[in-house]
């Protein structure tokens, strides 16, 4: 027989107030009223509701998406490409040598130029944030395209030579496979951008991706009036529940001005207030494109 729930002690002043039984949701810890203990047959329903919210987001987000019966990647993703995000952390004494190695080999691997690799989207060096760190984004025609490229790289003399030169220079490296959001396609190559790219990384609470997409679909239009959106990805392999947003600014002063202007738009205020509660932690870095980057 299930043991009865322990009644919680209350301050004496509370005896004059009516007991309130909070609603159970994914964002509110479950609480029990001493005046109305949770029945044994209520608990499976509560757990089911909590699990549904964690898997598919809030009822509001589910109501705005007609495809919640699909996986999140099919619901929010563009589905056309897979993007690989690579991060290289170099030894402090080898930064210049790494720049030279990337400039020599990455353009040669670029598929659009006849190389064995994927399509090179962009390559950047962090100037504010994690120092001695470089990010590169490669694009593939779905997972089949990624598998095909990996098979080609395994036989590529150019790729083998790159790895031989890279390894002694690095202190660590990581990569993730990600998709674009359906409402935010990656910018095409543009060698006349100049300025800097802000790379913002959001680690979401599990199950919040659909709600993130629902709010940012509206919020992007408010930001687009003031700043050039470059790309937005959500990870599928690697660190999960992670979103990457890339923005272009002429300089940091313009970044401040455009962000201040966006706060005057009601849609943007609403986007921030609705999405900040979905985030576990976040990170922002400023980067400059490398000279060979197709986006620079």
TrEMBL record:
Species source reads Tilletiopsis washingtonensis
Sequence ranges assigned to domain NIPSNAP in this UniProt record: 198-294
Q: What is this protein called?
A: NIPSNAP-domain-containing protein
**Where does it sit, as one GO cellular component term?**
mitochondrion
Coiled-coil region(s) at which residues?
Answer: none
Biological processes annotated in GO? mitophagy
InterPro entries listed in its UniProt record: Dimeric_a/b-barrel (IPR011008), NIPSNAP (IPR012577), NipSnap_domain (IPR051557)
In this chain, the stretch annotated as Disordered covers 57-76
Family according to the record:
Belongs to the NipSnap family.
